[in-house]
Amino acid sequence: MVNRSGHGHKIILHGLVLLAVVGGISYAAEHFGEGHLSAITAWIEKSGNFAPLVFMLINVVCMTLGLPQTIFTVVAGVLFGALKGTAMCLISMAGGASVSFVLGRYIFRGLILRKFGSDPNFRRIEMLSHHHPVKVLALSRLVPVVPYSIANYLLSVTRIRYIPYIIMSVVCLIPETVFLTAGGHILSAGVLKGSFNWKLLAALLVAGGMIVLLVRATRRSIEKD
Predict the structure, then answer these.
(1) In this structure, what is the dihedral angle of CA atoms 79, 84, 87, 93, given to the nearest 10 degrees?
(2) CA distance 103 to 123
(3) Which of 66, 135, 184, 206 is most buried when burial is the number of CB atoms within 10 A of its CB?
(4) Residue 193 or residue 5, greater confidence
(5) Close Cβ partners of 85 (under 8 Å, ≥ 6 residues apart)
(6) 1 lies in a domain?
C-alpha cells in the first residue's frame, strides 16, 4: 500500500537541496547585489509586526493556490530566525490548510472529485479515511505523496473532520518546519555575520532524526492495518 523506499531520507535530501539553493541565492544577493539581504533584514527589524503579517498572508494565499510551501519555510528562517520563523510557518500552515479545507469541502468538491477521483493516491486516502482518519492524516503530512497544499484539497473531500485535520496538519509538520527554518537561520547567520550557531545545528539534526523516525513509524502502522 505504501512505498517502502526511504521517504524520511527523501524529505531530508529535498530539504538540504532547498537549503543549498536558498543559501546560494542569499549569498549572491548579499555579496554580489550590494547587500540586499542585509537591507531586507534591516527593514524587517524596523517594521515591527507588519513584515511577519505580510509574509504569513502571502504564504496562506500561495498555499491556497496550491503552490509549494517548503520554500516559504526556508525563507522564514533566513529572514525571521528559527524560532519566530517556525511559529510563523505553523500559523500560516493552519491558516492555509483551513481556507483550503473550506473551499474544497463546500465550493470545489465536484471539481476536485472529477479531477482526482480516479487517481490511485486519492483512492488510497479515501479508503483509509473511513477507518483510520488520524493515521491517514499523519501519513499525508509526513510522507509527501502529494504536496502539502494539494493534499489539503484532497483531504477536504474525504470523511475526515476539520478538528483532527487541522491539528494533524500542524503537529505533523513541526519537525520538518524546525529542520528548514533552523537551516535557513544558519545560512542567514553565515552569510550576514560569518558566524555559525551550533545549537541550531543540533536542533536541525534532532528535527531530521525525528522526521525519519516518524515517517517510518507511521508507514509501518498503516501497513500493519
Answers:
(1) -10
(2) 20
(3) 184
(4) 193
(5) 73, 76, 77, 78, 79, 181, 184, 185
(6) no
Question: Could you tell me the three cell numbers for 92?
Answer: 500560516
Residue 219 contacts residue 11 (beta carbons within 8 Å): no
- Give the position of cell 518546519: 177
What is the domain count for the chain?
1
**Grid cell listed for 28:** 549572491
Rg of the chain (C-alpha set): 18
Structural domain of residue 32, as residue ranges? 7-224
Q: Who contacts 80 (Cβ-Cβ below 8 Å, separation ≥6)? A: 44, 52, 55, 88
CA 80 to chain CA centroid, Å, is 16
How confident is the prediction for the chain on average, in pLDDT? 83
Pick from 184, 173, 177: nearest CA to 74: 184
- CA pair distance 76, 181, nearest whole angstrom: 6
Per-residue pLDDT of 60-101, as tens digits, reads 999 999 888 888 898 999 889 889 999 999 999 999 999 999
Structural contact between residues 67 and 15, judged by C-beta atoms closer than 8 angstroms: no
Which SS3 state, helix, strand or coil, does residue 155 take? helix
Sequence-distant (6+) residues with CB within 8 A of 27 are 191
- Helix, strand, coil content of the chain in percent (nearest 5): 80, 0, 20
Domain assignment of residue 2, yes or no: no
